């Protein structure tokens, strides 16, 4: 067996997913970030930049320990699939957002470090629904998933929605509003993504097909304005210059060229086709008979 084809298998992490699926998830959430930037800018009436930072696989324990405490954590159902995803909004992002939603500038609240209150969370829920709507649209390219808010939490270690060693795909996104910036983190159970493997494969096939069609269309647009020179010739015997100069009126040149023999069609000096002369109204034309 070829050693290069052998891959290590960790029986403790059977829910880890393939790298090609991670690449597709990366593309999905790049689209999500672009869409969310427009949605949040319209919702907040302020210019918002959203950038995808990374997509990686972690254990649920590693993911929760990477989050600040306290923070704003939202457990989300992923209908029609069994299981919950996590959405985390850093305090550096939450409090400026709340201030902006209440009519402020959002510039003075970035250094607040405390738990978010229920009233503040209620104010923020409308914006969270905007985020989930764009998340659903991004995932619709692979499978229709309805993300809904199920539970709020402020301490990452207290939210036990899956086993500590269960794998999640951690998606790190930066949200920037002027001088204020904060992180938004998504944690999606790898086991659900593994269930969607066939849909991911179909998505990649469609993207490759679309990419090929787009590339063909682009190339066609580039070459459409180009011009070529067509030359139909009777490629027969040759005569010397002396013979040509000695020709007199009444002389006959024998080319030994049968009437039924096809003509050669040269494109930019290169032989490409053979054909025969036909009438096209008052003009003569070449009917293509064979590709050389």
Question: How would you summarize what this structure contains?
Answer:
This protein is of the alpha+beta class and 292 residues long. Helix content is 35%, strand content 29%.
Structure description:
It is a single chain. The protein is α+β, with helices and mostly antiparallel strands. It folds into two domains: 10-195, CheC-like (Chemotaxis protein chec, 3-Layer(aba) Sandwich), CATH 3.40.1550; 227-291, Surface presentation of antigens (SPOA). The protein has helices at 19-44, 60-65, 91-101, 118-139, 190-195, 197-223, 241-245; strands spanning 49-59, 72-79, 81-89, 146-153, 167-177, 180-189, 230-233, 263-267, 270-280, 283-291. A six-stranded antiparallel sheet has the order 1-5-6-3-2-4. A hairpin with a 1-residue loop joins strand 2 and strand 3 (81-89). Helix 1 packs across helix 4 (118-139). The chain is elongated. The relative contact order is 0.14.
What oligomeric arrangement do these chains adopt? single chain
CATH architecture annotation name of the largest domain: 3-Layer(aba) Sandwich
Under CATH, the homologous superfamily of the largest domain reads CheC-like
State the low-pLDDT regions, or none: none
Helix-residue proportion: 25-40%
The count of DSSP E runs of length 2 or more, i.e. the number of strands, is 10
Strand content: 25-35%
The backbone outline, from C-alpha atoms, is: elongated
CATH class of the largest domain: Alpha Beta
The major β-sheet equals: 6 strands, antiparallel
**Main sheet: strand order:** 1-5-6-3-2-4
Mean pLDDT rating? 82
- The tally of helices reads 7
* Structure classification: alpha+beta
Task: Find the CATH topology of the largest domain.
Answer: Chemotaxis protein chec
How many domain regions?
Answer: 2
Please give the alpha-carbon distance between the first and last residues.
46 Å
Cα-based radius of gyration, to the nearest Å: 34 Å
């Amino acid at each position: 067996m070829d050693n290069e084809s052998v891959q290590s298998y960790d029986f403790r992490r059977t829910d880890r997913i393939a790298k090609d699926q991670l690449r597709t998830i990366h593309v999905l959430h790049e689209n999500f970030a672009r869409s969310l930037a427009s949605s949040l800018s319209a919702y907040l009436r302020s210019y918002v930049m959203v950038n995808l930072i990374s997509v990686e696989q972690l254990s649920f324990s590693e993911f929760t320990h990477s989050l600040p405490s306290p923070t704003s954590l939202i457990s989300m159902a992923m209908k029609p699939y069994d299981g919950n995803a996590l959405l985390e909004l850093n305090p550096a992002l939450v409090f400026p957002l709340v201030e902006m939603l209440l009519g402020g500038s959002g510039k003075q609240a970035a250094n607040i470090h405390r738990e978010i209150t229920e009233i503040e969370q209620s104010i923020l829920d409308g914006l969270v629904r905007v985020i989930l709507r764009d998340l659903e649209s991004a995932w619709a390219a692979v499978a229709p998933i309805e993300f809904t808010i199920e539970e709020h939490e402020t301490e990452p270690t207290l939210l036990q929605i899956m086993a500590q060693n269960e794998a999640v795909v951690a998606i790190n996104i930066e949200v920037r509003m002027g001088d204020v910036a904060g992180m938004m983190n998504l944690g999606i159970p790898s086991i659900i993504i593994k269930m969607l493997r066939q849909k991911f494969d179909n998505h990649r096939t469609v993207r490759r097909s679309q990419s090929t069609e787009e590339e063909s269309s682009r190339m066609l647009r580039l070459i459409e304005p180009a011009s070529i020179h067509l030359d139909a010739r009777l490629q027969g015997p040759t005569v010397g210059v002396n013979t040509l100069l000695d020709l007199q009126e009444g002389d006959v040149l024998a080319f030994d060229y049968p009437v039924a023999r096809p003509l050669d069609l040269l494109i930019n000096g290169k032989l490409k086709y053979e054909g025969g002369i036909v009438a096209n109204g008052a003009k003569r034309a070449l009917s293509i008979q064979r590709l050389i």
